[in-house]
Amino acid sequence: MSTIQRVNFEPVSDLLKTQVRDFALADKTIADPLNATAFVDGEYFIINSSYQAARAASVAGNGNFPTQTSYPVFMERGRSDVLASAARKIALIFLGDWEADTRIFDATAVVSGGAAITFVGQPLKVASLTIGSKIVCGLVGAVAGDGEPIVGRVTRLPANNGGKLRYVRASTI
Questions:
Q1: What are phi and psi of 30, to 5 degrees?
Q2: Is 3 inside any structural domain?
Q3: Residue 115's closest CA among 162, 150, 90, 78?
Q4: Which of 7, 52, 73, 146 could potentially form a cystine with 26 if both were Cys, beta carbons 3.0 to 4.6 Å apart?
């Protein structure tokens, strides 16, 4: 299990080939850093039918997962430019191949036919997780054919990476 800190998501690859796109939040209250349900960097969001960013899974409890592709937040919470905007937009890494370290994961969770995160190359999916006292949408282990969208593959395990999970998001996941 990881912990939420000030920096939870750090790209380790060049981001020049990626597209980071701003989307208005479906729930504007989660932009407020004092809100108990505020988003964190590295948390996963989907694009809803109104072309807005919405949490990838219900945060009502552990184990809920999205049924569509989701994207990580690439900005810190509490930014004044987000809070000053009526649209309350957040930046998501939307397109391209990249590799990153994250703290927004649960290596031991087994969600909906998935598996604990145990090996390099393992597929990853998104689920609702409790990290510390906060419920977020983060990464858990997957297995081939478990039915949920794969968002990346493990490239470095937390035990060998200072407690952070390193993974790759590639167009050929």
A1: -80, 0
A2: no
A3: 150
A4: 52
